[in-house]
Design a protein that fits this description.
Elements (H helix, E strand, L loop, with lengths): L1 H17 L17 H4 E9 L6 E9 L4 E12 L5 E8 L9 E9 L4 E12 L3
Antiparallel strand pairs: 1-2, 2-5, 3-4, 3-6
Amino acid sequence: MRTLIVLRTAIGLLLAGCSTVATSPSATVTTLAPDADRWFKLSWEATPEKDGARVRLSGYLENTYGEAVGRVQLLAQAIDSSGNVVHQKIAWVPGAVPAFDRVYYDIPNMLPAHEYRVTVWAYERRKFF
């Protein structure tokens, strides 16, 4: 009986440890990689889409880190004049970003806003491709 209680408790603790709340972007949570600001530089320009109702963010992601990275996700946020996030989207950067190089990215269909913010949401360091 004692072994059964210990076993159930261990299984319960294991399951509780595996179930975590997913992190989602917000006005204060802009990255899953706290060191991203140190290793990447982002530039972007907002241009109206052809339909005139949406905005396209396009620019360059520069890798200042000494290793190539891949599976880079960018968080694009549309911010109103009060500083509130009114629209956001996570977009993949195509391909890999070589060390000390930059790549072009494009994030279509953003809502019009007072300003925009683009941050590196997540990435993987890669030694070999």
